[in-house]
Specification:
CATH class of the largest domain: Alpha Beta
Number of strands: 21
CATH topology of the largest domain: Purple Acid Phosphatase, chain A, domain 2
Strand content: 25-35%
Distance between the termini: 60 Å
Number of helices: 8
Structural class: alpha+beta
Bound molecules: fe (ii) ion
GO molecular function, one term: acid phosphatase activity
Keywords: Signal
Largest sheet: 7 strands, antiparallel
Shape: globular
InterPro entries: Calcineurin-like_PHP (IPR004843), FN3_dom (IPR003961), Metallo-depent_PP-like (IPR029052), PAPs-like (IPR039331), PAPs_N (IPR015914), Purple_acid_Pase-like_N (IPR008963)
Pfam family, one: Metallophos
CATH architecture of the largest domain: 4-Layer Sandwich
Helix content: 10-25%
Protein name: Purple acid Phosphatase, N-terminal domain
Oligomer: single chain
Radius of gyration: 21 Å
Order of helices and strands: HHEEEEEEEEEEHEHEEEHHEHHEEEEEE
């Protein structure tokens, strides 16, 4: 048997056998096996199987969103329980109809308790045929059991890991995550250019979701803002459906502990009328619209109240050349960042890691994570409590190549 196929079949067996013991897989345990499962290309043509393990999105104090993908159309649900509690079932309902007859599944658990550990399993019942007056089900498959913890109410601390510019190198995700060792963290943030350009679903599974679930994503959530490369390719318009950010959008804000985060979508790096886009993008209007939204966020109580104010976006508006994207971000976002005194900005894009201290133009440091080649990749660790924010940037050999600290 082909070795790659063998690995893939092993993985399917792991997640689909109902006899597997319901043991939670810790991030540490999953890190031990950094084998990235093969894509559905190597699957047998027939078969109702999971193409991904469940991955966590949109963490809340009272909710968590779970997504997964199956090879066949199915009706899907989640069974979950507070440790030691009774098992509950949840499925998604849209406009009165239960979500079904699809391969991409998303269930948002609601009314959870803050700061509480839950165990969960996902299920998928194949839909063999969907006639107007007769629906025929097939086999039901179920995942292993995993666990997650909901966000605490008003936590004193926050801790996250940031990756950027992976550029279709799936092995980088578990490798960079391994740099964190056993250090506790709340969630992971992807800051754009995880892909070179969007081709199809298979690429999303193989190069992002499966390496994420291998390393952490069935037990810890991740958030994601696009880089310029995610706006390219024939599948770019389908990409957002595979993720579920806060507010359901491509740009969003959230407070975690002492930090208010604002995540912006900086769009493409060239002019909208550049021939390679063939008239099919309008990022200038989009960035201007975001700037209006950004000012409402910068004026908000949550922003003013926060001890630390952090912006995460892919293209830095300084130190990334003089392309149109950089300059337009500088024009529409730059004055707002200075006026409302953000503390820190975290970016990618240039592929050259560096901590740029405050200077004329930006009155706050800009930290740029590197990538995507070996020796240039970074994992950024950000931790904050009421008194101190600490950022550490690790190169892929584990050495710290940048840091920044702010005290209150
Ligand atoms: Fe990039």
């Amino acid at each position: 048997m082909n070795q790659e196929k063998f690995k893939r079949r092993d993985f399917i067996g792991l997640v689909s056998k109902t006899s597997i013991l319901g043991l939670a897989i810790s991030p540490l345990a999953t890190l031990a096996d950094s084998t990235v499962p093969e894509s559905k290309d190597s699957l047998p043509a027939e078969g109702h199987t999971f193409l991904t393990q469940p991955y966590l999105q949109h963490p809340g104090t009272d909710g968590m969103t779970i997504m997964w993908i199956t090879a066949r159309d199915a009706y899907s649900w989640v069974e979950y329980q507070e440790k030691g509690g009774t098992t509950k079932k949840a499925h998604a309902v849209t406009d009165g109809m239960v979500d079904a007859n699809d391969r991409l599944h998303k269930v948002s658990l609601q009314e959870l308790k803050p700061g509480t550990i839950y165990t969960y399993k996902v299920y998928a019942k194949e839909i063999l045929s969907y006639e107007p007056y007769k629906i025929t089900y097939g086999e039901t498959i179920e995942s292993s059991t995993y666990e997650f913890t909901t966000l605490a109410l008003n936590p004193a601390e926050v801790s996250l890991l940031i990756m950027n510019d992976i550029h279709d190198r799936p092995q980088s995700i578990p490798q960079l995550m391994a740099l964190n060792g056993n250090d506790p963290y709340d969630f992971v943030f992807f800051n754009g250019d995880i892909f070179d350009y969007q081709t199809d679903e298979n690429q999303i599974i193989k190069n992002m979701i499966n390496p994420c679930t291998t390393a952490f994503a069935s037990t810890k959530p991740f958030m994601y803002v696009r880089g310029n490369h995610e706006t390219r390719g024939k599948f770019a318009r389908q990409l957002p459906a595979y993720f579920h950010n806060l507010d359901g959008g491509q740009y969003f804000s959230f407070t975690r502990g002492p930090v208010h985060f604002i995540a912006l979508d900086t769009g493409e790096d060239k002019e909208d009328n550049h021939p390679v886009y063939a008239g099919l993008i309008d990022f200038d209007t989009y960035r201007k619209k975001q700037a209006i939204w950004l000012e409402t966020q910068l004026k908000s109580k949550a922003y003013k109240k926060a001890k630390f104010k952090v912006v995460i976006m892919h293209i830095p508006h300084y130190h990334s050349g003089d392309g149109h994207g950089t300059l337009h971000c500088r024009e529409v976002f730059g004055p707002l960042f200075n006026k409302y005194k953000i503390d820190l900005m975290i970016c990618g894009h240039t592929h050259t890691y560096k901590v740029h201290p405050p200077e004329e133009g930006h009155q706050f440091p800009i930290i740029i994570g590197g990538g995507p080649k070996d020796g240039k990749r970074t994992l950024i660790k950000l931790k904050a409590n009421e008194r101190k924010l600490h950022l550490s940037m690790l190169a892929d050999n584990g050495q710290e190549v940048g840091n920044y600290e702010l005290s209150r």
